[in-house]
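Run log, item B.
One chain of 214 residues. Sequence copied directly from the ordering sheet:
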Amino acid sequence: MKITFFRILITIALFWGGGQGLYTALFNLKPSDYSVGDYLKAKPSTKWLNLTGGFLDITGMSYSGSKLSGTIKEVYIPLLPAKTDEAAPVQILVSSKDPGLIELATQLRDAKDQLAVLKILMNKGGVYHERPVTGLIRFGIELKDKDAKKLRELNGNLSPDFVILAEGERPALGLSILMFLGGLTMVFFFIKGAAQKSIPPALPATPVEPQAQA
């Protein structure tokens, strides 16, 4: 029973992940260009974006990584439009694995005092970093509720409908097709197994007693 339930979960994950990936790849053939301000005004449904004219706010940076080694593997940084109110809620978080940003996050985490923090920021370009960001908006199976909840705890200024832009990620058509085909294969074996179980077993043949010869 447990094995069957586990297979069902795998099948659902393959269909969901593969279907979402196919949708993203087919409807996002190239990154859509927006300024951060225009994107926030329009909030289009497109998922592959190239956002310009925004500032990465290093003061709001958070991170995730290995608890055992203490290695930072991913950073989350608010992306602000050129004109913004400091009290305005953050609507875009950039998720990045950029080595430079991970190094910066590590140095800030390990800084001994506020003066050390200021020196690090000055050496790394200040508090606000202006540069374009290209990546995929995380949604559906890729956006886990526990991750969103944790980010809200770390950044109390997040908008209720904030989005995560995963820097450097792009639609994966080939992998999505393989996942969807994997789901179809699992369904085929489910149907085949059910059909075999529905066929009643053959009745044993009635033995014929040998007749005595006259």
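Observations after the first pass:
- The radius of gyration is 27 Å.
- The chain has a mean pLDDT of 81.
Flagged for discussion on Thursday.
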